[in-house]
Amino acid sequence: MRGGAAWLDVSARGKIKLTGEDRARLLHALTTNHVQELLPGSGCYAFFLTVQGRILSDVNVLCRPDHLLLDLEPETREKVYQHLDHYIIADDVTLEDTTAQTATIAVEGPRSAAVIEVMGAPVPKGDYASAEWGTRLVARLSTTGSLGFFVMAPCAEAAQVIAQIEAAGAVAGDEEAFRVVRLEHGRPRYGEDLSERYLAQEANLPQALHFNKGCYLGQEIVERVRSRGQIHRVLMPLKLETKEAPAAGAKLTVGDAPAAEITSAAYSPALGGVVALAYVDDVVVEVCAGGSAG
By CB neighbour count within 10 A (0-12 exposed, 13-18 middle, 19+ buried), where does 241 fall? Predict the structure, then answer.
């Protein structure tokens, strides 16, 4: 995954399909990014927020010619479906949870694009872009933050897809290896590093936010934070000089003052230390940004 390509079955990730003439308008009003400007084959990363501006879920939005496809963490599939269904009033929108019918295989690492090309599949060029490959869909998505693609196919084709991926040069990975590489890249995951506990800007993922798109659920809080700068913590990657990964919730201090709270951590053999994500106190962030502390 650092020098070649590895695959992992991520079929547990949620897949929700939106059809109907009002699908883009509805999703635009419920997410933090500009869904209505998406063209078929393009996509974006966004948040669903609560009315209080807290992160209900993150989502990869894929725009297809006749529908929008949502790719979600397993933990958020059901609540996002219910959330969307709640706000469909007189809209021409139909929801379909296609998770159980869809096999999703992630291929990630520096040579992942070469693997997809050798397979004879289209290689989407932009982040969150997608392209049909017969009965399958190839999307430029990554769970680790490295170059990566999801191959989505009918469940009956899963074994064939995996065989093609391996024949093209990718090796089987495992969840722990993918998690270590994710933390090496500082890539947060909903359920570990993101939750309804946190405000949108605290997640430190500016690509999820669009500040000129108009009103959406939770937008008032996002705009208030933007205009006033009122956040007291921010999610940041850390490297710890230890081989023992601290548990989620572990507190870090500077002297006697609280400095950060760990959300996820793992030992990285490549870096010879622990890589972690943590919500860091804003005072510590300001001091480090000013160069007065390491």
Answer: exposed
Place of tokens 């003439």: 21
Q: What would the pLDDT profile of 231-283 be if each residue is shown by its tens digit?
A: 889 999 999 999 999 999 999 998 888 899 999 999 999 999 999 999 999 76
Between helices 77-87 and 23-30, what is the axis angle to 10°?
A: 110
- On whether the pTM is more than 0.70, the answer is yes
Residues 6+ apart with CB under 8 A from 227: none
Residue pair 70/14 in contact by the 8 Å Cβ criterion = yes
279-283's contacts with Cβ under 8 Å and 24+ in sequence apart are 279/198, 279/202, 279/233, 279/234, 279/235, 279/236, 280/233, 280/234, 280/235, 280/236, 280/238, 281/232, 281/233, 281/257, 282/231, 282/232, 282/233, 282/234
Which residue bears the tokens 């506990």?
A: 197
